[in-house]
Design goal:
308 residues, Rossmann fold, eight-stranded mixed beta sheet, 17% strand
Length: 308
C-alpha cells in the first residue's frame, strides 16, 4: 500500500520523494544535495523525518541519502506473503538500494559516511562490516550493533512485546501506542505537537504498523533469533573498520540504549570521538539537534586518511 503526497506535509519536510522498486515493492528515499554521500538510517518506530534537520543543514556540501525501511514512513506496506519483515531483509534492501544508487544515479562506490540510529545502527553496521572499503566515516546515535552488553537487561515492556504475548503485541499492532509513546518518551523535552504528529502519522492505521511490531519481535537476544547474524560479530572489530573515523553522539537519558551500550561502542572503537548529552533522551537528534548538527558538520569537515 502506498501513501499519498498530501499525507506527508510536515514541518521542515519538504523534500522531493524518490522511489526504488524491487520485487513489486517500492522503497522511498530522500536524495538531497551534492558532494560526498551521507547514508542516514532510521530505526523503530521512526522514519526519514527524523533526519530532516541534518539533511537541510548538510545538503549544501553532501549528498544525503535517507531511506525509509519497507513498511515505514513513505515506503510501501506489503503483505507478509510478499515481504519478510526481518532485519536480514532490511540489510538486503539496503544493499540493493546502494547498488542501484551507484549503478543508476551516479553515486560513488567509495567515500560514504554511515549515520545510524536505533535499528539503523544495527542494519547500517552490518552493511559496513560487509563493505568497509566503501566507507570513509561512521556516525552513531543511540544504537547498537553487537549482542546485548554484559549487565544489560532489555526493558520489561519490550520483552513482553517481543515474546508475542497477545495483549502487548495486540496493542502495538491494533493501536498506535508504541509510536505515540516513542514520540513522547523518546525525547527528554516535549516535542512540538506538529513534530509529534509527523512521527506518529505514518503508523496511524493498523495496516501501517506491521513493521513496527516485527522490529520489536526481531530484537536479537540469542543465537537462535533470526536477526542474530547481524550482530554476531566477535569481540573485536576488523582493523579496517576500527580504523575509520567515528563520531558518537549519545543521549544520556535513553530508556533503552543506556550507558552499557555506549561503553561497548567505546570498547570496540577506542579512537571514536564521543559527545555525551546527559540531558538528551533516545531522540538525541531532537533534544540536542543544534549541538549534534554542529558536531557532525565539524566532523565531516575534517579530511580522511585518503584525502590527506
Amino acid at each position: 500500500m502506498s501513501l499519498t503526497e498530501a499525507e506527508f506535509l510536515y514541518p521542515d519536510y519538504d523534500f522531493a520523494p524518490h522511489w526504488f522498486e524491487h520485487g513489486g515493492v517500492r522503497q522511498h528515499y530522500l536524495d538531497e544535495g551534492e558532494g560526498s554521500p551521507l547514508l542516514m538510517l532510521h530505526g523503530n518506530p521512526t522514519w526519514s523525518y527524523m533526519w530532516r534537520d541534518l539533511v537541510r543543514d548538510l545538503r549544501s556540501d553532501h549528498r544525503c541519502i535517507v531511506p525509509d525501511h519497507i513498511g515505514m514512513g513513505r515506503s510501501d506496506r506489503p503483505d507478509e506473503s510478499v515481504y519478510t519483515y526481518t532485519a536480514s531483509s532490511r540489510l538486503a534492501d539496503l544493499e540493493r538500494l546502494v547498488q542501484h544508487l551507484v549503478a543508476e544515479r551516479g553515486l560513488p562506490a567509495r567515500g560514504w559516511t554511515l549515520i545510524g540510529h536505533d535499528w539503523g545502527g544495527i542494519i547500517g553496521m552490518a552493511w559496513a562490516r560487509r563493505r568497509p572499503e566503501w566507507l570513509a566515516r561512521i556516525v552513531i546515535l543511540n544504537s547498537a550493533a553487537f549482542p546485548m552488553p554484559t549487565g544489560y537487561r532489555l526493558p520489561w515492556y519490550l520483552r513482553l512485546i517481543r515474546g508475542g504475548g497477545r495483549p502487548p503485541a495486540w496493542l502495538v499492532h491494533r493501536t498506535n501506542t508504541f509510536a505515540l509513546a516513542a514520540s513522547r518518551l523518546g525525547s527528554a523535552s516535549p516535542l512540538p505537537p506538529p513534530v509529534r504528529r509527523a512521527y506518529v502519522d505514518p503508523y496511524r492505521d493498523r495496516h501501517r504498523r506491521l513493521a513496527v511490531l516485527r522490529f520489536i519481535q526481531d530484537i536479537p537476544l540469542t543465537s537462535a533469533d533470526p536477526a542474530w547474524p547481524l550482530i554476531d560479530v566477535g569481540l573485536v572489530e576488523s582493523p579496517q573498520l576500527a580504523a575509520l573515523p567515528m563520531l558518537v553522539c549519545w543521549g544520556g537519558r535513553d530508556r533503552v540504549f543506556d550507558h552499557h551500550f555506549l561503553a561497548e561502542w567505546l570498547r570496540r572503537f577506542p579512537s571514536a570521538e564521543v559527545h555525551l548529552f546527559p540531558r538528551a533522551g533516545h531522540f538525541v537528534h531532537e533534544d540536542a539537534r543544534h549541538e549534534v548538527t554542529a558536531r557532525l558538520r565539524e566532523f565531516l569537515g575534517r579530511p580522511t586518511e585518503g584525502q590527506r
